Amino acid sequence: MAGCCPRSPRLFLHFLYPSLFAPNGISRPSLAAAISSTRCTRRSSTEASTPKDESAPISSHLNPAPDDYSMSYFADKAKLTIHAGAGGHGCISFLREAFMEDGPANGGDGGHGGNVYIQAVHGETSLYKLARRKIVRAGKGKSGQGSSRGGQRGEDVVIAVPVGTVVRELSRNDPEAENRFLSRRDRRRKKAQTLAIEEGPDGEPVEDADRDKWLLYPGMSSSDKRRMALPPLPNRDRLLQQPKEPVHLDLSRPTPRPILLAVGGLGGLGNPHFVSKGTPKPMFATKGEDAVSMEIELELKLLADVGLVGLPNAGKSTLLRSISNSRTRIGNWAFTTLQPNIGTVVLDDNKGRPMLTSYHRVSDAHPSQNYPFNVSPQQPELERRTRFTIADIPGLIEGAHLDKGLGIAFLRHVERAGVLAFVLDLGAGNAVKALKALWHEVGLYAQMREDEERERQRQAAIDWSAAAGTDAEDATFWPSNMAGDHGAPVANAGGLHIAGKPWFVVATKGDLPGTQENFNELREYLDAINRRKEPHPSGVEGAWTKDCTAIPVSAIKGQGVDRVVHWAVGLLDG
Ligand SMILES: Nc1nc2c(ncn2[C@@H]2O[C@H](COP(=O)(O)OP(=O)(O)OP(=O)(O)O)[C@@H](O)[C@H]2O)c(=O)[nH]1
Ligand SMILES: [Mg+2]
Q1: Where is the composition biased (Basic and acidic residues) (predicted)?
Q2: Which end of the chain has the lower number of beta carbons within 10 A, N or C?
């Protein structure tokens, strides 16, 4: 193609035909178009001579060209190291004015370090940015200054995460909490051990463990510094209570206010705080406190009303396109979809009138009674459903639990869906076998999650924290419904009992010849489940076996898909 349209002649057109390029009313783009059409005449004529392939599929919204899709960066896991800000140091300063040589102490206090918060907000859809960011730091407090000027407070940081994020603490470093827990004498012993300092005649280590928490006047000689008697460190409480270890939050709803994760260090005290009868001119101030740092793991479980589960190439994405506004990628090969997609199904007749009447509980979405934040629901109990969301995930294959294909980890995005829709390709072999294989993988996934959760709860039952046994509670910042290890167990909130969810089958590619028999067999199998003659395909006792149905569709032609919407809404309404 490049050979038939050489670039060089175009470069000389200005010189050969200057009038063509003069600003005489013909715009450059139209001229350029004229040129390109002339230049490509040869190609067009050759194309025209070849007969058009009539059988080639015409691309449309439901049968798009391979490059007709939209994709955004997506990550559903992220590990973050968060550092709250350290406090600024207190200042050692004395008033100096004309005719006043020896003024009083006037060193300002250091600013407190910034805190790190987390908040689940609508509008965030992925953990991608956080996964790349890796480290989050709140601002450090500025040191105090002379003339009693306090240091500026460190800036707080709010980590915005999508609704549906689970937060787990992996490790924590809280030097101040450890110090508070140990007695002064123990701290001294510990420091002596680490520094290998000799013990004094009274058996006490010579070095005071708290000495490095003090700032001494820089103008003093080192021997004076060593000899200087320092008062006991003042006992100060943090402005906010550091949440108990380990943090475990299930942010399945937007959080009205940011939730505290790590508290910044207190700012140091300036020298006026230490003025006493014996020390009218204190040559010392305290340093700012070290702050808490933590390693946390974020896991996003998308919250869609309906989750599509199917083998690769079954037609899940085509189905999603046919009923929602999604522009997910479609291709005639396995694993076209590599990350979850959410589509919104709008329940109107394209003229703004409702397509069907459906209601959902508002209290589910705004469980204000569980929040300590005083958010009272203004909405009525039931609200008309105008839309619902549907999640399309990468295809599952047999043995996905053994990490075959893309594994089963993506099932976390349908784990919380209200309804599961199993998408089966009627043209790809026995549909009953495919359904059983899918349920087998889903069942194994549920089992794996439950084991994980049990292990986590067992670990959480052990109190590793230094403050174990103390009754420091952090109720102010911990909504009981969110704190996995502080309130209700997250396992129940996560709804791991997947087999108990309402489900149905969407039998796709019904337009292909010879699929009727396969569909009939599938329908008979589902009828047998409804009549309790066959067990639930997952094999779980007491699983959902009410009205299991299969809806035949041709998603590519948009036929039968309205029934899928109606059925899904019916199941969502319960
Ligand atoms: N004939 C016919 N073809 C369909 C139908 N639905 C989807 N297809 C085709 O099946 C192929 C796979 O469709 P996708 O929607 O990408 O399948 P998928 O389940 O999302 O595949 P993965 O993303 O790989 O899991 C595409 O070539 C579609 O055009 C249908 O109803 N009839
Ligand atoms: Mg797909």
Answers
A1: 170-184
A2: N
- Inside any domain, residue 547: yes
**DSSP string of 181-202, one letter each residue:** HS-HHHHHHHHHHHHTPPB-TT
Listed residues: CB within 5 A of ion ligand 2: 317, 336-337
pLDDT digits (tens, 9 = 90+) for 116-152: 999 998 888 889 899 999 999 999 999 998 888 999 9
The domain tally of the chain equals 2
CA distance 255 to 140: 26
In Å, what is the CA distance from 338 to each residue of 66, 127, 406? 14, 16, 8
The verdict on 406 and 435 lying in the same domain is yes
Q: Are residues 316 and 273 in the same domain?
A: no
User: Listing from the earlier edge strand, what are the strands of the sheet with 165-173?
Assistant: 135-137, 77-83, 293-300, 165-173, 248-251
The string of pLDDT tens digits covering residues 254-298 is 889 999 999 999 999 998 998 888 888 888 899 998 889 999 999
Distances (CA, A) of 220 to 82, 128, 216, 283, 284: 38, 52, 8, 9, 11
Q: Token pair of 169, please?
A: 């603490």
Expressed in angstroms and rounded, the spacing between residue 315 Cα and the centre of ligand 1 is 3
Same domain, 151 and 285: yes
Coil, strand or helix at 47? helix
Quote the ligand 2 centre to 434 CA distance (angstroms): 17
Atom of ligand 1 nearest to the CA of 314: 19
Claim to verify: residue 286 and residue 327 sit in the same structural domain? no
Contact 301, 163 (CB under 8 A): no
Is 147 found in the same domain as 233?
Answer: yes
Of ligand 1's listed atoms, the one at least distance from the Cα of 338 is 23
Using the atom order of ligand 1, give the atom closest to the CA of residue 321. 15
User: Which pLDDT belongs to residue 331?
Assistant: 77
Ligand 1: which of 313, 333, 414 to mutate, judged by most atoms within 8 Å of the beta carbon?
313
Structural domain of 113: 77-300
Domain shared by 292 and 374, yes or no: no
8 A C-beta contact, residue 168 and residue 296:
yes
Looking up tokens 């890796």, which residue turns up? Answer: 134
Q: Which of 270, 300, 330 is the last residue of a domain?
A: 300
pTM of the model: 0.68
* Domain end position, chosen among 257, 274, 300: 300
CB distance 336 to ligand 1 below 6 Å: yes
Q: Tokens 């190439």 correspond to what residue?
A: 313
Phi, psi of 396 (to 5 degrees): -100, 145
CA of 548 to the centre of ligand 2 (A): 24
Q: Are residues 184 and 230 in the same domain?
A: yes
Pairwise CA distance, residues 405 & 215, whole Å:
60
